[in-house]
Design brief:
With 78 residues, the protein is mainly β. It has a single domain, classed as Beta Barrel (OB fold (Dihydrolipoamide Acetyltransferase, E2P)), CATH 2.40.50.140. It is built from no helices and five strands.
Length: 78
């Protein structure tokens, strides 16, 4: 199936670039640029702080950037 090739991985925010773009590190040490899509931006403008655990969606074609799809702290995970 085309379009179903996505990779979901857990990452940790390491720095804030702006309100919707962050630097994140995967468990294996790989650094990437993670972003929050405009449609999913919280209305209060909350920013993920360094150390926040998130789940990112990566394309197998570009592993240097990913979309933040979930904040793992909100779910109660560690």
């Amino acid at each position: 199936m085309r379009g179903s090739e996505i990779i979901l991985l857990d990452a940790e925010v390491t720095s804030v670039i702006n309100t919707r773009v962050f630097r994140a590190r995967l468990g294996n040490g790989h650094e990437l640029t993670a972003f929050v899509p405009r449609e999913q931006s919280p209305p209060d403008g909350r920013v993920y702080l360094p150390g926040t655990k998130v789940r990112v969606c990566l394309s197998p074609f570009d592993m240097s950037r990913g979309e933040i799809v979930e904040n793992l702290k909100e779910r109660g995970e560690t």
